[in-house]
Amino acid sequence: MTKADLLVERGAQRLQHLAGRAAQRGDGIGTWLSEELTADAAFLRKLKPSLIAARAKGEPPMNTPPASPPPPPQPQAANPPKPKQKRAKRGRGISPLLVVGVALAAGILAAKVIDWRGHAHPRD
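Now predict its structure.
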């Protein structure tokens, strides 16, 4: 194997590791992500430079890696525990009404300035 093949294989192994971690989450997103990452890892293994060169020459690739099966799905609990949500603290951030009021005042001020400058230099 060449260095480039080793780099591609290392990337595929990292994707496979991430797929395993996503499958451990046990929720729908983790399962979906696990399947996608496993498919990406298999595709990445097909992109090894030595395999591409062999296919370009018309030779069947000799060292085709076996496709690793997806990790087995984790048993899902009937009611998975929900993460605790923090309460929103009051008085945090700027009031949306204040933002709208400032934007309205700035728009009116801009309109007045533009109108005033228009009267300063009439085209008549």
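Helices lie at 3-25, 28-46, 49-57, 96-120.
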